[in-house]
Amino acid sequence: MGAGGEQKPPARSGGGVCGGPVRRRLQPIGKPMERRASSLQRIKDAADWKRIGLHQKYADQTMTRPLMRGWFHALTAFIFTALIALDAHTLSPGPVTWFAVVTFVIPYWASTALHCVPWRRRTAHDLALALDFLGISAGFVGQSVGWVGVGTWRGVDEGASWRLRFAAWCARGNVSLAAALAWLLTCALYNRHRQPVMLYCRKARFAIVGANMLLLGCVETALCHDWRLNVALQLLGRVFVPWYFLRCVAVDAGGKGWLPLWDGVWSPHENWHCAILVLHCLQLHAVSIRHDGTSAFVTFLEVVGGSGHAGG
């Protein structure tokens, strides 16, 4: 006891100089190699990477997966990614390259991540599902912007036709709709423990994508000068594709349609994507003729042929 009956404070063992405070060294959270190994382990545990494209169930355990689901997306994405990377400048002008990327690369790789990867973690599956939904809307938006070109952002020239002005406003509207869908999907991911991402605000999502589709149809009708090609685009893209989806592909669809099916291997979903691929090819053909005067597929053949001669 000290003077006045006060208790002395306990002596500090190993105190600093002149009894000063002891400086404690912060323990490292983890060595860089350990943190890197931990990150790699999390990636490894997120999916069964040895069974890519072979799994029969999705991570949500609510839907079965036919054997060919996702392979169609992966093949399409790989081919067009390789063609664009092989000699991207031959797809000039820029809007045509942009159109090809947002039509055949981004959405198809997003679908591949959803359908081909056997996710173990529900969070990873939900994120892939949200990116797949967003990729569909982004495709409509990117195609609208590809048709209009830089006028979407900078504004069209004063002497531009009313068709181009109308198409530019439709493209801007599509951008706004995609932003709304991105916010909706963010909310869906945040609330995924209460309601599945697949069902979160489903009607609102369908309404946004439907509006995306209609606005793209307006852009195509305004800027596609070949009326026969435009009729084919509208009948396939605005009539058959959405009708077949609601009739045969949607989660609550009851029909099977007349197109060929193979139980456990090939479903209406694959038939639907075949129709979409035909539509996308027609769209790329139309937009490249508008901007370049030549079909992009002629350019692709020249690129492949030139590479073959160079390799030989």
UniProtKB/TrEMBL annotation:
Gene Ontology CC entries for this record: membrane
Subcellular location: Membrane
Keywords: Membrane, Transmembrane, Transmembrane helix
One example of a Gene Ontology biological process annotation: response to sucrose
Topology of this chain in the membrane: Multi-pass membrane protein
Transmembrane segments: 71-90, 96-117, 129-150, 166-190
Region (Disordered): 1-34
Pfam annotation, one family: HlyIII
Designated name of the protein: Uncharacterized protein
Species in which this protein is naturally found: Micromonas commoda (strain RCC299 / NOUM17 / CCMP2709) (Picoplanktonic green alga)
Organism lineage: Eukaryota, Viridiplantae, Chlorophyta, Mamiellophyceae, Mamiellales
